[in-house]
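[AMINO ACID CHAIN]
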Amino acid sequence: MLAQKNYFLLPQLLLAAALFCSCSGNSNGKTNQSTASAEKKDSTQVEAVAEVKENPYKPVDSAKYYELQKYLANGDTTGKWPVKNDPLPINGAILPFNRIIAYYGNLYSKKMGALGEYAPKEMWRRLNAEVAHWNRADSVIKAIPAIHYIATVASGTPGAHNYYINRMPEKQIDSALAIAKMHNAIVFLDVQVGLSNLHNELPRLEKYLKMPNVHLGIDPEFSMKTGALPGRKIGTYDAADINYASAYLTKLVKENNLPAKILVVHRFTQGMVTNYKNIKKQKEVQMVMHMDGWGEPELKKGTYRHYLYSEPVQFVGFKLFYKNDLKKAPNRLMTPEELLKLRPKPIYIQYQ
């Protein structure tokens, strides 16, 4: 039996280089036009070279990177972990040098997660306590906080375009960024596409994804390729969809001289992600396959073994539900100490 996932569908919402210019004249003082033209061309070339900016982010220590990947594999001897052909990421990579501890939710709803349930100061008190617990449990990898905000929410009503989604207004996304800034946290913007698709929804968030501290989450559960309504059935993404999102982020990284981005892909069933072996790894994008199911500890560990451990991509995440994980015996949340015994160790932890 596999871990379950609650459907949290909102009703309709309220929604500098100097130019060098030398002038050569002939004997009568007139400028030689061919010389001036050549000098203009040279000047343009100098400008083009000057536009190439040096990456300002911290270079990746390759030895440390692969050492930590082996540490996360937690003694696996099957050859699955650490993953094969794992590309060394570009400058500014967060993983695996840090473990991300994220609060998930939407500011319009108290039922979608801790992020919207509590006022910012109380939310931060709770999140900082979780970060501190993880740092006590694992002295090898530092835990850092994150805000994981659902920017496109699957809905039970058609909405303006019959996509069965609600797109959060920019003022709400800005509020999520402001909350993150209170404690210098990174941000994830999550997309539930409903009857829309990533090609439609990612460009709407581009201004935010160009920010160095903003990353992306995509949720196959609410990708309704068959036309079924969100919440009626569990949706799916193929490797091609995931590769599209990764390529989209890669392009933004290259064009805007950004640090490595993180792409979180939610998963708790076999069908939610198809053709995983075709998922392309990029040095510009760090991929987290995130175990998103709820239930008792043994059920959650079973889901983790079946779909996350057995189908390796790059990094693994694990989600904890403050309420739903308590519904069945032993009626408790799994602890950091327990999760660190998993193979591989999760590097991204999300609380809802």
In short: The chain has a mean pLDDT of 87. DSSP finds ten helices and eleven strands in the chain. The CA atoms of residues 131 and 295 lie 22 Å apart.
